Amino acid sequence: MIGKIVSTCGGVYRIYANGVRYDVFAKGIFKYRHEHLCVGDNVDFDDEHFVINQILERKNELIRPKCANIDLVLVTMSVVEPELSEELVYKFLTYVLMHNIEAKVVFTKVDALRDCSTIERIKSDLAKIGIETFFVSKDDESSKEAVRRLVKGKVVLFMGQTGVGKSSLINAIDPAFNRKIGEYSNALGRGKHQTKEVILLPYENSFLADTPGFSSLDLMIYKEDLAQYFPGYEKYYTQCYFSNCLHQNEKQCKIKEEIEKGKLSKEAHEIYKKLLNELEYRQERYK
Ligand SMILES: Nc1nc2c(ncn2[C@@H]2O[C@H](COP(=O)(O)OP(=O)(O)O)[C@@H](O)[C@H]2O)c(=O)[nH]1
Ligand SMILES: [Mg+2]
Ligand SMILES: [Zn+2]
User: Fold this and answer.
1) 3-state class (DSSP) for residue 150
2) Does residue 162's CB lie within 6 angstroms of at least one atom of ligand 1?
3) Which residues form the domain of 44?
């Protein structure tokens, strides 16, 4: 039978197939071959002996949070607490885009937003490069409907820091999920971790992935990835004079030209330069 791994716990895999959940083990052969099963995997399993026989080919796979076969990532960012970080939005987006997965941005807690000017500018910058943004609040009916439409028929992963309201949003889609909500802790300066690992929640003909909060430091992005996949840059980067252009002071840099023309955002490029300084070159990985 074919099913999807929706969660794992202590070597037991929970599989969802045709509306039924099965708890199954993996054959030893996976360990032997160093094949790692993960949430999101589509597998062929034996529903009499409860073992997984085979992993079906993955269309994509993220390492953090660990999940396979994602159709859409909703980069989730609070506009109040934890404080809105435009830098983090771009970092998350780069990470998702470099895995060739579609991304949209959901700004949460708009009920608590006082000044809209920054958020409007970010929204228009993202619109320029074809990234859709949504503004939601967990108790607002039209927000709930918008998110329900967004997730229809897809495997959707909510990515974002602890405390931005990922679990709240999932509960807003359907209260029956009853996801634990973490109190945002001012003392710790971050939300308490309530979601320990990725879990896929079947919803109508979709799957919603609730994920543990993680810090941006967990993301492995190298300078070369950033130069190619920074949101909006992939379309142009092959047109730079140097094939390994980092879009700094190189001659005939297409990215800089597009910024001059107003096609790409200046503010975003400042973030790009800041991130570039923080990241490592890929070759350093092998030291
Ligand atoms: N004001 C406001 N608070 C929210 C909203 N959504 C979530 N929160 C609060 O933010 C905190 C963290 O929410 P949670 O869903 O656990 O975040 P997660 O860690 O991303 O899953 C909780 O105290 C929620 O009550 C919202 O739309 N508006
Ligand atoms: Mg949560
Ligand atoms: Zn360039």
Assistant:
1) helix
2) yes
3) 2-58
Ligand 1 atom with minimal separation from the 161 CA: 20
pTM: 0.93
Residue of 134, 140, 168, 177 to mutate, ligand 1, most atoms within 8 A of C-beta: 168
Strand order through the sheet with 199-203: 133-135, 102-108, 72-78, 155-159, 206-210, 199-203
Q: Could you tell me if 187 and 71 lie in one domain?
A: yes
Q: Whose CA is nearest to atom 7 of ligand 1?
A: 165
Domain count for the chain: 3
> Based on the domain organization, do 79 and 177 belong to the same domain?
yes
Nearest-5° Cα angle at 67, 173 to 218: 105
Look at ligand 1, atom 26, and give the residue with the nearest C-alpha.
109
Using a CB cutoff of 8 Å and minimum separation of 24, what contacts does 251-258 make? none
Convert the pLDDT of each residue in 213-270 to its tens digit: 777 766 788 999 999 999 999 999 999 999 999 999 999 999 999 999 999 999 999 9
Residues 217/222/223/226 CA torsion (nearest 10 deg)? -80
Domain co-membership, 102 together with 196: yes
Shared-domain flag, residues 194 and 228: no
Q: Is 163 in the pocket of ligand 1 (CB under 6 A)?
A: yes
Residue segments in the chain with a per-residue pLDDT below the cut of 70? 183-196, 217-218, 282-287
86, 203: one domain: yes
